[in-house]
Amino acid sequence: MCRHLAFLGPPAPLGDLLVRPPHSLFVQSWAPRRQRHGTVNADGFGVGWYADGDPAPARYRRAGPVWSDLSFADLARVVRSGAFLGAVRDATRAGADGEAAAAPFTYGPWLFSHNGMVAGWPNSVAELARSLPVEELLSLEARCDSALVWALLLHRLRSGDELPQALADTVTDVAAAAPGSRLNLLVTDGTQIAATAWGDSLWYLAGGGRAVVASEPYDDDPEWREVPDRTLLTASRTDVLPTPLKDPEPKEPMA
Questions:
Q1: Is the Cα dihedral 224, 187, 85, 96 positive or negative?
Q2: Most buried by CB count within 10 Å: which residue of 38, 116, 141, 216?
Q3: What is the rounded distance in angstroms from the CA atom of residue 127 to the CA atom of residue 31?
Q4: Catalytic annotation on 2?
Q5: How far is CA 141 from the centre of its chain?
Q6: 190: left (phi over 0), alpha (psi -120 to 50) or beta
Q7: Within 13 Å of residue 60, how many CA atoms lie on the same side as its CB?
Q8: Which pLDDT band holds residue 39 (cuts at 50, 70, 90)?
Q9: H-helix or E-strand containing 137?
């Protein structure tokens, strides 16, 4: 169910991480090594990146498989950035949203991706959806589970919550409403990365003034570290902090 990667560090061509490595995100679109659910990530892709002096990221997304887009390979070869997020998508179910459903989603300085699925979608999270202001529901970029999870997280961020706490609370709220969901979320604002391991693989590579957080390693560097399930991971260019997450308490049955 999707693969994604976020990078912070010295400016580098996007392709150095997304295309060139032997097990890059590009390769993971058809041959992931550690994906536990699904096999081919061909239902869209995207990358968002930050340019010096502009806090709002640029974004390139398409509805089809990344290997069919020659323009992306050319763009990734020359565009350099010190912070970016890329994703390839395996759709939970067929839909007509196309490019709009491909990560990264964005608002203000944030880029967001979801690797996983919301169990029982959409009925399981109808109550959570009703908790959002109507204008935020009407602003959903797509009608998929990832778009709603992003809306729930964004509502917390707009309300002033710090990114790590907003991410953790969003995951536990959705997990409580929809047990069995897989909620590996990945977010960056260009200065920090926050991610959750909740039902699928998550790894990080840190050192030398850079941090990479990804669904799986893009090479065989022994410095890659796997993140335990039920973990919130926060990373900057100099520090990585894992924090355990607790499963939500079971809801009491309605009388």
A1: positive
A2: 116
A3: 37
A4: yes
A5: 15
A6: left
A7: 16
A8: confident
A9: helix 134-138
Catalytic residue among 2, 47, 128, 194: 2
What are the tens digits of pLDDT across the range 72-94?
A: 999 999 999 999 999 999 876 65
Strand extents, DSSP E, the chain: 3-13, 45-49, 58-62, 80-88, 105-107, 110-117, 182-188, 193-197, 203-207, 210-214, 225-226, 231-235, 240-244
Tokens 């097990």 belong to 23
The Cα–Cα gap between 83 and 7 comes to 5
Whether the CB-CB separation of 77 and 15 falls below 8 Å is answered with yes
Residue 124 is which amino acid? S
Q: DSSP for 81-108?
A: EEEEEEEE---SS--S-GGGGSSPEEET
Query: Does the predicted TM-score (pTM) go above 0.90?
Result: yes
Report whether pLDDT(205) > 60: yes
Instruction: Please say if the pLDDT value at position 96 is more than 70.
Output: no
CA distance 34 to 215: 8
Report the C-alpha gap between 179 and 124 in whole angstroms: 9
Longest CA span, the chain: 61
